[in-house]
């Protein structure tokens, strides 16, 4: 199968890497505890990184992630391959890994479009969507909001309007796999050479949409809990799926935790354009938007034109981003120290 079927496009082509006679390009379809399902033009392989790769890696983010393009050496008779290196990523959606440690978890790599899926039932949460939008803008992919389960929503127009208030300039598509509506609007983002990822909470319909677009049951689907309409985990790992008409989908498990990893000021500005525009109108450039005279933000909060909950969400993300940056600075210093320790150890070994 041609690599274009797996999402190979002009961004990857620009890498212009030369291969040795025994090397080829492949894409990571899934990963489980250091083992990878790899697809090349010759077929599917179970792959691992080489010892040299492992030795040179400075952290978890240096290892292959689902969606990565890699240089590998195939062993067809064994149905195995060795990964020599990862090609530069043109986009990646990352979050802080769940737990107390400050570690980056790459959810999906080399994606063109991030479908942010939110169901039009009890899952509907505009504040959570603001967080997804901030992270999507920072990923390098183009965000698109998918409002799923439209057939269950009695106040569709009101919910769409509330999403429009926070998703400035982002396409919003209402869909229903059960009613078979909205599929044609997704067509512009799908096709050969394109990669999309479904991101959202458990039970929003990501696996159902994957089956819907594939025209067959690819992913197991569980019904939402009857007592509170909350979702159940169906997908338990990230997986890349080739669509019959071209292009690929990365289906991901529902995220119980969605903590920022990194986010630039630009990505926060994208998500909160209204607040940034107001801040630019404050009398003082260093306005903290608390008790200063001539504060445009406080003025609009007092009139109710800007909701307190949206402003609180903006402040929360700012604080979280500042905290992550402080932690990352410490991590970077430790990684650099470890890197030089490794270099000095190799030099000593060479002269022994």
Automatic annotation (TrEMBL):
Organism: Sporolactobacillus terrae
Assembly mode: Monomer. Associates with 30S ribosomal subunit, binds 16S rRNA.
Name the UniProt record assigns to this protein: Small ribosomal subunit biogenesis GTPase RsgA
Main subcellular location: cytoplasm
Cofactor: how bound: Binds 1 zinc ion per subunit.
EC number: 3.6.1.-
Transmembrane segment boundaries: none
GO biological process terms on file: ribosomal small subunit biogenesis
Keyword line: Cytoplasm, GTP-binding, Hydrolase, Metal-binding, Nucleotide-binding, Ribosome biogenesis, RNA-binding, rRNA-binding, Zinc
Binding-site residues, GTP: 148-151, 200-208
Family of the protein in this entry: Belongs to the TRAFAC class YlqF/YawG GTPase family. RsgA subfamily.
Lineage: Bacteria, Bacillati, Bacillota, Bacilli, Bacillales
Localization (cell): Cytoplasm
Name of one Pfam family that matches: RsgA_GTPase
Gene: rsgA_1
Cofactor(s) listed in the protein's UniProt record: Zn(2+)
């Amino acid at each position: 199968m041609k690599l274009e079927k797996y999402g190979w496009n002009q961004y990857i082509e620009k890498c212009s890497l030369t291969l040795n006679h025994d090397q080829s390009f492949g894409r990571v379809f899934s990963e489980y505890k250091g083992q990878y399902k790899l697809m090349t033009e010759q077929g599917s392989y179970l792959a691992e990184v080489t010892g040299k790769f492992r030795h040179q890696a400075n952290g978890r983010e240096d290892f292959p992630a689902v969606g990565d393009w890699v240089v590998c050496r195939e062993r067809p008779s064994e149905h195995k391959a060795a990964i020599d290196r990862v090609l530069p990523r043109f986009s990646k959606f990352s979050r802080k890994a769940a737990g107390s440690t400050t570690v980056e978890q790459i959810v999906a790599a080399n994606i063109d479009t991030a479908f942010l899926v939110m169901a039009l039932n009890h899952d509907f949460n505009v504040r959570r969507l603001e967080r997804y939008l901030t992270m999507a803008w920072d990923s390098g992919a183009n965000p698109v909001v998918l409002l799923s389960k439209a057939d269950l929503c009695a106040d569709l127009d009101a919910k769409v309007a509330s999403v429009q208030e926070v998703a400035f300039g982002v396409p919003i598509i209402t869909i229903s796999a059960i009613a078979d509506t909205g599929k044609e609007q997704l067509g512009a983002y799908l096709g050969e050479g394109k990669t999309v990822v479904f991101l959202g909470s458990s039970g929003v319909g990501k696996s159902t949409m994957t089956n819907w677009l594939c025209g067959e049951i690819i992913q197991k689907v569980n019904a939402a809990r009857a007592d509170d309409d909350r979702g159940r985990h169906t997908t338990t790992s990230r997986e890349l799926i080739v669509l019959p008409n071209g292009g690929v989908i990365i289906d991901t498990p529902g995220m119980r935790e969605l903590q920022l990893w990194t986010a630039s000021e630009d990505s926060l500005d994208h998500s909160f354009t209204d607040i940034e525009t107001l801040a630019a109108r404050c009398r003082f450039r260093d306005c903290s938007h608390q008790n200063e005279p001539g504060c445009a933000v406080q003025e609009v909060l007092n009139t109710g034109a800007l909701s307190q909950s949206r402003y609180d969400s903006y402040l929360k993300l700012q604080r979280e981003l500042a905290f992550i940056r402080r932690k990352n600075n410490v991590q970077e210093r430790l990684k650099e120290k470890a890197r030089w320790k490794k270099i000095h150890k190799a030099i000593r070994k060479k002269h022994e």
